[in-house]
Amino acid sequence: MTRRGGQLVAIQRLDVFREALRRIEDHIEANHLQPGDRLPSDRDLAAALEVSRPLVRQAIKVLESLGRVSAQQGSGTYVQDAGHRVAVRELTRGMRFDRDLLRQVLPARVTIDVEVLRAAFARRTPEMLAALARTLDEWERQLTEDGHEAGATTSASLDLGFEAALGRACGNEVLRRLQALAHDVWLQAQIAVGVAPGDPAALHHEHREVLEALARGDLPEAERRLRDHLSFLPLTGG
User: In angstroms, rounded to a whole number, what is the distance separating the alpha carbons of residues 132 and 27?
Assistant: First the structure.
């Protein structure tokens, strides 16, 4: 705890998550890990960082959403090509990762993610819908297992795995890469500001509603649900 205005204030869980995320990325860079190289297990990372395994798992999920690692069940977590990070640095050159940047990137993120949804809708198949459902099922399973651990709920609300899964399914590589850039800037700004977007269970329910509309073939409803989901702008905290 620290003191603020004469009162003790708890250290924010997002601060711990932010530091764990930074150190995992530092580990990748300091050890010159290349695409295909394997990261230490979540148990080893948690022990080295002195944080909970659920928090490490959520950090890995965020890095996976950003395309920096690939978590393969039963095999491990592997480094991905992070070439787009150069584009992120150029895009944000001279900008501060703060609430103003969140306000500026929001309309771009909404526009890109809605276009990704439209492209995915045009290519939807039972197999695609099943894969999207598995993404949500896995997220729900992990949240159920980790939900009572310190930091897990806060960091889980930063997971963009469903949106990233739509990007992989949309069949438009330019859109997918633009989405990755927008997600990267958005998450970096959120983490820097120290604000999580809300209750992860409610966010998960909103994802389910988008998927249900897709499965019904109702694109306008899917778009409306996604816009409502994305248009939340965190303005307090941290």
Answer: 31
The model carries a pTM of 0.78
Q: Would you say the C-alpha torsion 183, 189, 190, 191 has a positive or negative sign?
A: positive
Please check whether residue 27 is in contact with residue 60, taking contact to mean a CB–CB distance below 8 angstroms.
no
Map out the domains of the chain with their CATH numbers. Answer: 2-79 (1.10.10.10), 84-230 (1.20.120.530)
Q: What is the pLDDT of residues 224-236, one digit of tens each?
A: 999 999 887 654 4
Q: Provide DSSP, 148-204.
A: TSTTHHHHHTT--HHHHHHHHHSS-HHHHHHHHHHHHHHHHHHHHHT---S-HHHHH
